[in-house]
Amino acid sequence: MTTDKENKSRLLVTREGVSYVLPFIVVTCCFALWGFANDITNPMVKAFSKIFRMSVTDGTLVQVAFYGGYFCMALPAALFIRRHSFKSGIVMGLALYALGVLLFIPAKTIGSFAPFLIAYFILTCGLSFLETTANPYILLMGDKETATRRLNLAQSFNPIGSLMGMFVAMNFIQSRLSPLDTTQRAVLDDAQFEALKQSDLGVLVQPYALLSVVLVLLLVAMLFVRIPAVRQPAREHHEPLWPAVKRLAAYKPYRRGVVAQFFYVGAQITCWTFIIQYGTRIFMAEGMSEQAAEVLSQRYNIVAMVLFCLMRFVNIFLMKYFKPERLMAFFAGVALLLMCGVIFVGGRAGMCCLVGVSACMSLMFPTIYGIALGGVNEDTEVGSAGLIMAILGGSLLPALQAMIIDSDIQLLPAVNVSFVVPAVCFIVVMLYGLKSSRQ
C-alpha cells in the first residue's frame, strides 16, 4: 500500500527522472488566465445587449465568437504542437490572447458590435492554443495512474482566475455602466444613444487594456522559462493527420468523451451566463432597479464560483477513494435534480439551486478530459484538439437557451424554462460517467 507521501510524489514531481515541479507551476498559471477570460466574458452578454440595445439572442453572439475561436483553432494548435513543442504552443497562445485583448481598444473607437466579436474570436484562438497545450502536458508530466487527479489539481486554479474575472466584471464594468435600464435606453434619440454608448464602452474596455499589459509581461517571462519536453510513445510528428483521426474515432471512450465534453461545456456556460438574466428577473420583481439586480445576480455568481473552486479540492481528495467516473455520474445526477428546482421552484430558492449546480460541475471538465485521453497514447495532441473543439457546446447551446428566453411562454417564466437546456446536458454527462465506470 502506498503512503500519502508516495501518492503526492506520483501525482506531479517527476517523469523518467526529470523534475516537472516548476513547469507544473508555470503552466498552471495559464489555467487561471483562461478562467479569467471565460468569466469576465459571461456577464458581457447582458452588458452588450444593453449597450447596443440588442435582444438576449443577439447578445449571445459574444459566446458564439468566444467559443467559435476555441473550435476553429484547436486542430491547428495540435498540428503546431506536434511540429514544434508544448512551450511553443503556450507562447503562441499567449501572443494571440494578448492580440485579441488589445483589439478591444480600436473596437471601442469604431463603436460597433462586430469589431468586438472579432477581438473575442482572436482572443479565444489564443485560449484554444493554451488549452490544447496545457491540458495534455499536465497529463503527461507524471504517473499515468494519477493523471486525472493531477489535471484536476491544475484545473483547480482555473476557478481562481474565474473569480477574479467575475470580481472585475462586477466592480469595474457592471457597477460602472450607466444606470439607465433597457427600457430607458430604448427611448433615447440617436445623439444621446451614441454618447451613452461611447461612455459605457470606455468603461468596458479599461479592464481589458490592463489585462493586455499582464499578458505581454507573462509572454516575455515565458520565453525565458525552461519547459522540459515530455517523451511519450509517439509516432513520427510528420505523419499525416488522418490516421490519427481514424484511430481516435475508433476508440469508444474518446469518442463518447468528445460528445460528453460538448454537452458539459454547454451546461457550464449556460448556467454561468444566464444566472444574470435569471437573477435580474427575480430581484426586479422584488422592486430592485435593473442595474442593482444585475450586480446582486453577479454576487450570487461569485458564490457559485467559490463553491466550484472549493469542490475541486474536495474532489481531488475523494478521487483517492472513489473512481472519478462514478463521482462524475453522481454529481451529474445531483445537478439534474437542482436544475428541476431552478425550472419549477424559481425565486430565491431556484437561485440557490442554480448556485449549487456549480459545486456539482467542478470535477466534470478535467475528469471527462482524463477519461477520454486515458488510452490514446501517441495521439494525445490530436485527441486534445478534439476535446477542445467540443467546447463549441459553449457557443451553440447558450444561443439555443437565449432563443427560449426571448420566446413567448405562458405556463412558466421563459428564463426558467430555458434551463431545460443544461438539464439535458447533465443527463448526457451522467450517462457518460456511468458507461465509463463499467469499462
Notes on the structure:
There is one protein chain. With 439 residues, the protein is mostly helical. It has one domain (7-227, 242-437): Growth Hormone, Chain: A. 78% of the residues lie in helices and 1% in strands. The chain has 22 helices and two strands. The chain has a two-stranded antiparallel sheet. Helix 10 (158-173) packs antiparallel against helix 12 and helix 14 (252-285) packs antiparallel against helix 18. The chain starts with a helix and ends with a helix. The relative contact order is 0.15. Residues 5-9 and 232-237 have low confidence and may be disordered.
List the SSEs and their pairings.
Blueprint: H1 4-12, E1 14-15, E2 18-19, H2 21-41, H3 44-51, H4 56-59, H5 61-83, H6 86-102, H7 104-110, H8 113-140, H9 147-155, H10 158-173, H11 182-186, H12 190-222, H13 241-250, H14 252-285, H15 290-318, H16 324-344, H17 347-361, H18 364-373, H19 380-389, H20 393-405, H21 414-417, H22 420-437
Antiparallel strand pairs: 1-2
Helix pairs in contact: 2-8, 2-10, 5-6, 5-8, 5-19, 5-20, 6-8, 6-12, 7-8, 7-12, 8-9, 8-19, 9-15, 9-18, 10-12, 10-15, 14-15, 14-17, 14-18, 14-19, 14-20, 14-22, 15-17, 16-17, 16-18, 16-22
Any idea how many domains?
A: 1
> What is the strand tally?
2
CATH superfamily: MFS general substrate transporter like domains
Query: Quick check: average pLDDT?
Result: 84
Q: What is the straight-line distance between the termini?
A: 24 Å
Structural class by helix and strand composition: mainly alpha
The global form is: globular
Low-confidence stretches: 5-9, 232-237
Q: Supply the CATH class.
A: Mainly Alpha
